[in-house]
Amino acid sequence: MSYSENQFIEKINQSIEPLRQEIINHKVYSNILTLDDLKIFMQFHIYAVWDFMSLLKSLQNNLTCTSVPWFPIGSAETRHLINEIVLGEESDVDLDGNRKSHFELYLEAMHQCGANTEAIQTFISELIKTKNFDLAFAASDTPIEAKDFVNFTFKVIDSGKPHLQAAIFTFGREDLIPGMFISIINDLHKNFPSNISIFKYYLERHIEVDGDHHSHLALQMTENLCADNLEYWEEAEVSIRESLHQRISLWDGAYNQIIKSRS
Predict the structure, then answer these.
(1) Residues 108-127: pLDDT tens digits?
(2) Cα distance between residue 230 and residue 236, in whole Å
(3) 80 contacts 64 by C-beta, under 8 angstroms
(4) What does the alpha-carbon distance between residue 20 and residue 15 come to, in Å, rounded to a whole number?
(5) Does this model's pTM top 0.85?
């Protein structure tokens, strides 16, 4: 049975469509009118870019053997799916053809734009040092919406359930970038090419790689892991809906900060 014929996937798509539309039509996009607005948006979004990589590596750890001595784990097809996604996300190419993870590429875009990266870099440095999320959030003064977003992702990671991790990776972490936002970034790029070129490229790569090829791979991976287990699919739907609510909240936080900065 292909993913397009899967009744469980169809049920999830119907269930989450209102939330997807709420994300696509979120007011934050139409309020990114200046470089300063974009900087604020990026300072929120970078947390989602970072924990996306953590979710990805958690799936790879659970679905393949990443320790020595090596032993074959799980389905070879599923191993292929997650390894191909990891290859693209962890070692893509930048504008000059240099290998970069999408997180590193996003950080470069922030530096070029002039967005403040101190919070995310302090968060990561503190987390490396202490292994304690609360201390890292406090040291970096992470926005509450970003904190809640990351905490939810790691709640799913810590569940040890690959089918839930795959589900929110597939349905809950797709950015659903609307055409309007692409147009806004293209307009900003015309006026500020030396500030926006890396972010514009990041969005183009996201649409080309994540939104097309990787989304199909991830969908197949989720189907493989949930199979015909009704309980797995029901759990997945609950987690996917919560992940979309978290995305809406993250965008709310960015929008509120943009409006606050104008006053």
Answers:
(1) 999 999 999 999 999 999 99
(2) 10
(3) no
(4) 10
(5) yes
